[in-house]
Structures
1.
Amino acid sequence: MCGIVAALAARNVQGILLEGLKRLEYRGYDSAGMAVMESGALMRQRAQGKVAALEEKLAERSLTGSIGIAHTRWATHGKPSEVNAHPHLAGDRVAIVHNGIIENFEPLKRELESDGVVFESETDTEVVAHLIDRAFATCHDLLAAVQSVLARIDGAYALAVMHVDAPREIVGARKGSPLVVGVGIDENFLASDTLALLQVTDRFVYLREGDVVRLSARHGIEVLTADGEPAARDVQVYEHGDSAASRGDYRHFMLKEIHEQPAVIAATLEGRLSGSHVLESSFGVGARALFERVKQVHIIACGTSYHAGMVARYWLEKLAGIPTTVEVASEYRYRDVVVPENTLFVTLSQSGETADTLAALRYATSRADDLTEQDGQGYLATLAICNVPGSSLTRESDLSLMTQAGPEIGVASTKAFTTQLVALMLLTLALRRSRGDEREAALVQALRGLPGVLDQALAMDGPIAALSEAFAEKHHALFLGRGTQYPIALEGALKLKEISYIHAEAYPAGELKHGPLALVDADMPVIAVAPNDELLEKLKSNLQEVRARGGELFVFADEGVALTAADSLRVLHVPAVDEFLAPIVYTLPLQLLSYHVAVLKGTDVDQPRNLAKSVTVE
Ligand code: G6P
């Protein structure tokens, strides 16, 4: 939610800030802005809409200076407009960019207004600008001014601030929203993620909760804890290169990311399998001993990651015999959760920064402490399955398993989801009690062959592009699946609604007759995911119920499924695979379907309206 980037260099920073914003645009894209210190004065350009609109303005009147801050916004307080776009100023002395929400901004705003401050925007951020302006007027030190204001604000933030009277400094802070420091040679940077800064450096300091940082020409990088104590933070080298930021020959990032799945799944498996079993050490030091004690698993996630958790529940219960619950983080965090003995708490998150998931982890950790005090019980351990190294979720969990999807830019998640599924299969096998049996050996072998099967699934692109024409004029669609394919149907429906704006719902096929069947007619395409598994015959009966009501059916099935295409029934063959891995393989054609429908409809595939990739607000 919102991307921020800041630069303090010896060269003009407009180009660096602009490129940083383009790379952060996945975090929000309803307005963008930049402020640069030009000959001792703060100069600002802002535009409603995407970064490209700001770029046009900068082409007319560029900003020139070696210190600046910039922002791309996903609106929370105040509608998307130029006046609400960041950076916000106070008295032409302070400029600030902010990601997050200041929860107590209303009383603070009233206080400032009664003191004569006139606000330009409807944002919570502008309050912080004015508070810093006042604090600086007293202490004449930007770092001290920011620290004193942070003590007064509640909520989540990552921010970067400049002041005309501290012309060679930028102060940043983070609490609840991500912020990294990019370390250069005689130049330093701040950004919401590393991707924004890979254009200028591969060395980063990952700030911790509550950290405040000052970049200055005189002192370089100074990090202080929330208590104001100097903090030593390691500089880490990012080793994955910078190619991920480009679309290559693909028309959209989403299509590129769909096609990367065989390679990133191979990378996720690399070094984690030995012979015919999974290496528990992949999950961190001590994982093996911990896993032996696990009697129950609680999985928490949001959005697409939640769907991955739903698949894992079937796997963990069937293959490992471990009772498992799966819940969206925004519900879990406000419940009085009962934690059975020896429960492993698992979070799934592409970004590792999703506000609700992070809050759920913190709640689980605090709950564990409470329960431990009461009756000796609590969570056994916390495990994060995550795609971003150094993210808050991985840092705050006992164990972690990194998916190796690489940066995912398309807002609709694709490769992050399938690599999560692979990671969850690794977890399932690691938790399985009966080690070394034929089932485990067969699954490990099937995992090794999975990238090849996914390559075959991608070859369905042509037929799926042709099929997508049947959807472009439709307003609704229904997805059906059973067992592990029910969450895949949910994910297929989510993809379609996210990027093509077609209202899509998913049901477990057995529930069809309990309501949704009433909606079925020729205008409601029904998509069924039908691998050749033990539930196939039951699913076939459900499909007959649709056909009998004149519904138009599109069935994704493997060749072994005896279904003959007919007028109202189109069958697309998906490559066969071990039934436990079928949810991973069947995801790809559904991703391709939503992609092609969106392209036909002419929507913004990579940046669908109203959405953002990283949701760092509640
Ligand atoms: C947003 C994204 C989704 C993602 C969800 C959870 O809604 O648009 O693609 O699934 O957040 O994100 P996470 O990073 O925690 O997986």
2.
Amino acid sequence: MAANIISGTEVAKAIREELKVEVAELTEKHGIVPGLVTILVGEDPASQSYVAAKNKSAHALGIHSEQVTLDVDTPEADLLALVEKYNNDPKINGILVQLPLPKHINEANVLYAINPDKDVDGFHPVNVGKMVLGEQCFLPCTPHGILELLVRSGVETSGAEVVVVGRSNIVGKPIANLMLQKREAGNATVTLCHTRTKDMAAHCRRADILIAAVGVPKMITADMVKDGVAVIDVGVNRIGMSSTGKAILAGDVDFEGVKEKASCITPVPGGVGPMTITMLMKNTVQAAKMAANLI
Ligand code: GUN
């Protein structure tokens, strides 16, 4: 079976068109310009390119965006003070602190300092708790993007066997939780595999929907999946440099092999990545509407 390639680039573009209309309406009817600040500490090239892409996307939608880059040695107290400044800035609806942070900064201290009403990453414990309870909140952007990809690609999740590989706070834990809830793109039977899982391949072979978020290039191979599986590849692994100096990326899934057995599969790049940024924009618009009591 040749798989249907799920283009996150195309789905994200369609959602951004919807958001553009929503932002224009907010601005024209209500005088509201949603605002996002991204804060980057240090010069990690991957983080720099993610943050640049987030600001570019905001700008294209008519969202006000500010970008702050701090020296890698910035003390934690200074970063906390900056977060507090933006907590109190009415022009800013969403605050994003790019992860990972340098080792001397306690990530939890910073994430917990963000006002939950401006936590467009959905990483604050208040939003994580609400998500687990199935209440209205900011959903973390990558899992939110995966749900949208599944819905818009017509993948049936109700009653499906979903296997998630990877237990990170950003992807594995939240997507596993969301997909077992009574909600759109939910009602699945979910297995969460991790580094201590015995016989990972046996679990993966049961999956109707396989979500790989481990950060190991091409770890999921064709012999580990069943015919007709829907595959979502969250991995973005830099495996080399092209002759033009661009990073060569690989997912967590051996795309060439697995696509011969899958019913549908996301590519890397052009799969989950563009969705993550777009869901950040969606959360920023949601934050602006909440601040104006419009939802
Ligand atoms: N680093 C990698 N992914 C993310 C993300 O979704 N949000 C933030 N803030 N940092 C990240």
3.
Amino acid sequence: MNSPSPRETILSLFSQNPDGFVSGEHISAKLGVSRTAVWKHIRNLRQSGYVIEAIPSRGYQLVQSPDVLMPESIQAGLECLRVGSRVRCFEETDSTNLQACRLGDEGEIDGLVVIADRQTSGKGRMGRQWESPGGVNLYASILLRPAILPFEAPKLTFLSAVAVCRAITSCTGLQPTVKWPNDILLGGAKVAGLLNEMSSETDQVHYVVLGIGVNLNMRANQFPADLRYPATSLAIVAGQPVSRLDFVRTLLREIDALYQIYLEQGSAPIMAAWTELCDLTGKAVEVDCNQLKIAGTMIGLAEDGALLVRTATGKIENIYAGDVRSV
Ligand code: BT5
């Protein structure tokens, strides 16, 4: 991991002190710089939107952080094993997945996180678009380099799905559900979408990119009229805004913890957690598989991540790609 910048060090000192006070002397000793240099770093942080008060004889106090996603505020005190070891934030990019793939091709490390404030070509599955206005949502891609075979990689979508659900519950108390293969729903409306991509050879994965889009503070009038399914945001459902910074930090911790479980125990515990979050098991569904529509009862997941649907004739179909709808 790269050594932290002075800003990162100061923000992490704030996060380590429960009363929020850090003395100028302590910062200057930690950074190995003069008190004047400390004051300059504090001034720069204020210019970036941090509200920092200076209280005589107690030191500096971080009163408020801006809801701007920056590597140092995301990483401060994050304590993840892998995820977030490097964080790249863009004000605007075409797609965080494309960025992460480009960086993956250049050799970026396991655990790299790419975040954008807005995307100009946010990607959904099968060439669809992901609506990505600025300042309101989370658009993130996580680069992982697990030593797995290519056929295993699609199962990592379940990891992102469980992590997103846990982060939503932790930040808002809401209880989302999952819909195979890549949707997170609140009250039946889509609140988050996932898009995994990978680079591999026949018998080796170079990297996997977990693409995660979560509608945090998007307003009803920001959704296009022609969405395939009803959509919503956490703020619409919770009735109050969600801190993007808190959400992304919570999400990265959840992904890191699940990734550790995945590396130690494989995908079975993660798929079990996903199944718990799915409320369509045992229900009548219709799956749109491009040319073909399959109707039946959703049974659950096969070991390889396929969706199992029992049709009216009693036949069990293993479905690898499609859009599921409850009927
Ligand atoms: C997805 O595709 O749900 C995958 C979305 C992944 C987005 C993330 S953002 C970070 C990373 N970088 C990227 O470029 N992508 C990933 P799919 O199941 O195909 O759903 C796409 C469909 O959802 C669209 O055709 C619309 O109908 C609808 N949609 C578009 N934007 C939406 C939004 N913000 N919220 C809810 N629904 C949306």
4.
Amino acid sequence: MCGIVGYIGRQPAKKILIDGLRELEYRGYDSAGIAILQDSGFSTFKALGKLINLEKKSTSFETKGFSVGIGHTRWATHGKPTELNAHPHMGENSYVVHNGIIENYQELKNELQSDGVTFISQTDTEVIVHLFEHYLKNALEAFDAFKMMLSRIEGAFAILLVTTTKKNQIFFAKSGSPMILGINSEDEKFFGSSDAALIGKCENVIYLEDGDYGYLDEKDILLYNKDDKRQHLTFTSLPTSKLSAQKEGFRFFMEKEIYEQHDVISDTLIGRLSDEKIIFDELDDNFLDGINDITFSSCGTSYHSALTASYLFERYAKIKTSVEFASEFRYRSPLLNSSTLFVVISQSGETADTLETLKMAKDAGLKTLVICNVDNSSMVRLADYTILARAGIEKGVASTKAFATQVVVLWMLSLYIASKRKSLDTKEIAKEIKILREVPSKTIVNDELHERIHRLSKRYLHGHGFFFIGRDVFFPLALEGALKLKEISYLHAEGYPSGEMKHGPIALADPELFTIALLPKNMLYDKSKSNVEELSARDATICAISPVNFDKADDFIQISNTQHYMLEFFEMMVVVQLLSMEISIRLGNDVDMPRNLAKSVTVE
Ligand code: AGP
């Protein structure tokens, strides 16, 4: 979820670019940079960490008169957060900034390196500027070279490129990552990854569509669509409030983050799936040497993704797996041995309890892996191996897309290990990979479904409590649904294994006890159904979530008919996230910053 800005005009460009990047800070980043081209040539600055570091580095610089400039805040996906990996990336006489992932970057990089091109970063982005210059060398016009480069790259991208070959132009392209082009009354042009970067600078904008590309100079904007047809310029006016711009039209960051799950899951998958293989560049060949079992340690929602993973690891990788609450693990003098792979899961990478258990494992000589959403966090810096979830910054305290991407990474990791341990053959892995590729489409929020959940939520605003129940991986999903509801509605809720209800909890069954029953068709449906019937027979109020109609439920939320329980898992995940959010909204709570909670619990 990097941030991109661009400017062409006669105002002080450095200030415009850095102010624009500041408005994009909400997208999260670990480094930033700008490149400004004037007659005298390029001036470029990059810095790790916050924008203040970039400002310090460029204090003595400011433009006078006409200039073109681009800027970027980087959220590391390929390559650690370092200055070398920070954007803009340079060629011999050009700079580029990019948001997205170039899927075929390795192939392009090899091709360019065999042509003698030297790369200085570990990023996928750097291939863009070298490929552009490669075509420029063949005496192509700059725009032709830009188009040739675009025809070679695959993946998601929003690109701004400037070059001394055309000092008064900015080249742009958009496919899969957001890019907005703005113009002010002095005919100056601006680019931004979201409205927030443009509000207050220009009044009229064009929201570029996928496949749009072109270039602009002080006078003209040449915009082409995916069919290479020159586009008529149709401007719309910008929203005025920055905060609503950061929420990109959603009511809450949590809502925005639920809606962007399908996008970020696509990012999580990019570069990690071939037709028959899971690819983790982050893991080396001796990752599993000497490993006989796995221990997960995490908290809260991250504990729920770990519990989900335990089912997948034992089912697919046939490896003994245990799951620990970090806050318990750290005080119970656990037995630790070096044949255990110790895996911590954390959105923030800073949770005190989880971090402490990672230190314990390191001190005891265990091999450690962190599944994390924040590169350069404490856990990432400490663990032997890191796999990034690539969810982008998660601002809602109630975790949603971080959970979704953690489960996707863990599912892939279970298959990766299954392949290494030969507990699944290539055909079985290929089948699972096909299903994995369907997950993004299963997490697209269906407006009708959202509206149905909104209407239905009015019935669940009281009562003496909720049970969320499920079996197998739907038990940790039930725990997660219950946590979401508790966190943002302040109503009491418990997640329970469906089969456990008869061992006590069913004593609570009455019309005021609301049970959210997860009834997947592809996992123990009949068993779960009879558990729910036991509750319904005792007059509990049942809301069933299932692809199969369930006539004994008071409410029924239908999900689509699929052939794999994990696709049902992700569809039901979206339902329980929306249900908790809609109930919380009806209760008038602060969905994004619920009482008593912090986004990252860095204290014990
Ligand atoms: C989840 O919605 C909560 N915000 C909380 O349980 C969170 O998952 C927990 O504090 C762990 O945080 P981490 O993933 O950043 O380690």
